[in-house]
C-alpha cells in the first residue's frame, strides 16, 4: 500500500528548475531510496514531502495528509533528520532529545535510542563538542524520537567512518524491521544497494529510473563475463547454445564467457549437468554504478 504519493512534482528557484515532473510512490514498510548526484533535486523533493516547501505544480500526499495543510498532524508521524545548523551549540545531547520528545504525543524512549546509536556516553556533552559522526547519530536519534511512522533520512552516513557506516546501516535495518517506512536520500551507491528495497534514480530534476537495486542493474543490461578453468575439456557449443551467452573465448586453459541476464546461473547449471567443475571461477558483474552511467549517461560523482 502506498504511504507516500508524489505526482508530477515541479519546483523551481527563480530560473533554476530543481524538480522537473517527478512522480513516485513509497510503499508501507519499505526503505525507499532517492539517489542522484549533487544538485539533482533530491533534497527539494523530500522537503516537499515534509511540507517544508510548497511545490509549484503537482501533488504530494503523505499518510493521506497534505504536507502543508496538515503539517501539525504530519509532524507527529513523520521524523526527519535535522540539518546541522538547526541545533544551538550549547544544547546538551540529553536536552535536545528531551526537548524534541516533548513535541510528540507518543515519543520513543530516547535513552534506548542513545544506546542503540552508540552515543549513550555523550548524554551530557554539548552539541558543539560532538564529532561529525556523533552529530550525525544524534540527528538520526532526533528523527526517530517521535516514534514516527515514516522517517526521512538525508545523507545518512556522510562524514562517518566505514565502521560507523556499517553500524548505521544495521540500525536502519532494525528501524525498518520495527515497522517504520524509510525514505533515504543518498549519493552513495553502496548504501543504496545495501539498504534500499526500491530506488528512484534522480538526475537533473527527473526520475531517470525506478526499480529495485537488482532490477536497475539488470535494466542497464551491461555485459557480464564469467571466467573459469574447466576440470575437463568442454565443447564450446554447450556454452554458445545457452540463450544468456553471447561469446566464448579461450585464454590458455581458461574460458571467458560473455553474456547477459542470469549468466552465472546459466553457465554453472550447465556445467553441473555435465559434471564439469569450474576452477578459479570469477565473475565481472555490472554494479549499480554502471547502471547509473547506462541510464543517465554520466557518473554519479560528476
Ligand atoms: N533555496 C534555494 N534557492 C535557490 N536554489 C536552490 C535552493 N535550494 C536548492 N537550489 C538549487 O536547486 C537544485 C536542486 O537542489 P537540491 O538541493 O534539491 O539537490 P540535491 O539533489 O539534494 O543536491 P545535494 O545532494 O547537493 O544536496 C540545485 O541546482 C540547487 O542549487
From TrEMBL:
Single GO molecular function: ATP binding
Q: What's a GO biological-process term for it?
A: response to antibiotic
- Domain ABC transporter, by residue range, is 4-229
Q: Which InterPro entries match?
A: AAA+_ATPase, ABC_transporter-like_ATP-bd, ABC_transporter-like_CS, ABC_transporter_ATP-binding, P-loop_NTPase
**UniProt entry keywords in alphabetical sequence:** Antibiotic resistance, ATP-binding, Cell membrane, Membrane, Nucleotide-binding, Translocase, Transport
Q: Which GO terms describe its cellular component?
A: plasma membrane
- The protein here is known as ABC transporter ATP-binding protein
Q: Report the source organism.
A: Phytoactinopolyspora halophila
Amino acid at each position: 500500500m502506498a504511504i507516500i504519493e508524489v505526482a508530477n512534482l515541479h519546483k523551481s528557484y527563480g530560473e533554476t528548475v530543481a524538480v522537473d515532473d517527478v512522480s513516485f510512490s513509497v510503499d508501507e514498510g519499505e526503505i525507499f531510496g532517492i539517489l542522484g548526484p549533487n544538485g539533482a533535486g533530491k533534497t527539494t523533493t523530500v522537503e516537499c514531502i515534509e511540507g517544508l516547501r510548497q511545490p509549484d505544480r503537482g501533488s504530494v500526499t503523505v499518510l493521506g495528509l497534505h504536507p502543508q495543510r496538515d503539517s501539525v498532524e504530519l509532524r507527529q508521524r513523520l521524523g526527519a533528520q535535522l540539518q546541522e545548523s538547526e541545533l544551538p551549540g550549547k544544547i546538551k545531547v540529553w536536552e535536545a532529545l528531551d526537548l524534541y520528545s516533548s513535541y510528540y504525543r507518543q515519543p520513543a524512549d530516547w535513552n534506548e535510542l542513545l544506546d542503540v546509536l552508540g552515543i549513550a556516553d555523550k548524554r551530557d556533552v554539548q552539541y558543539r563538542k560532538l564529532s561529525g559522526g556523533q552529530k550525525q547519530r544524534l540527528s538520526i536519534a532526533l528523527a526517530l524520537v517521535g516514534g514516527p511512522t515514516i522517517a526521512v533520512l538525508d545523507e545518512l552516513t556522510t562524514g562517518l567512518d566505514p565502521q560507523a557506516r556499517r553500524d548505521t546501516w544495521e540500525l536502519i535495518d532494525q528501524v525498518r524491521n520495527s515497522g517504520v517506512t524509510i525514505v533515504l536520500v543518498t549519493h552513495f551507491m553502496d548504501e543504496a544497494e545495501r539498504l534500499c528495497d526500491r530506488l528512484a534514480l534522480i538526475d537533473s530534476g527527473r526520475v531517470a529510473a525506478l526499480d529495485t537495486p537488482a532490477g536497475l542493474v539488470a535494466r542497464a543490461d551491461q555485459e557480464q563475463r564469467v571466467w573459469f578453468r574447466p576440470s575437463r575439456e568442454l565443447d564450446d557449443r554447450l556454452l554458445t547454445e545457452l540463450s544468456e551467452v553471447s561469446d566464448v573465448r579461450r585464454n590458455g586453459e581458461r574460458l571467458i564467457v560473455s553474456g547477459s541476464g542470469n549468466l552465472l546461473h546459466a553457465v554453472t547449471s550447465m556445467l553441473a549437468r555435465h559434471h564439469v567443475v569450474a576452477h578459479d571461477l570469477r565473475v565481472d558483474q555490472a554494479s549499480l554504478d554502471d547502471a547509473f552511467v547506462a541510464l543517465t549517461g554520466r557518473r554519479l560523482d560528476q
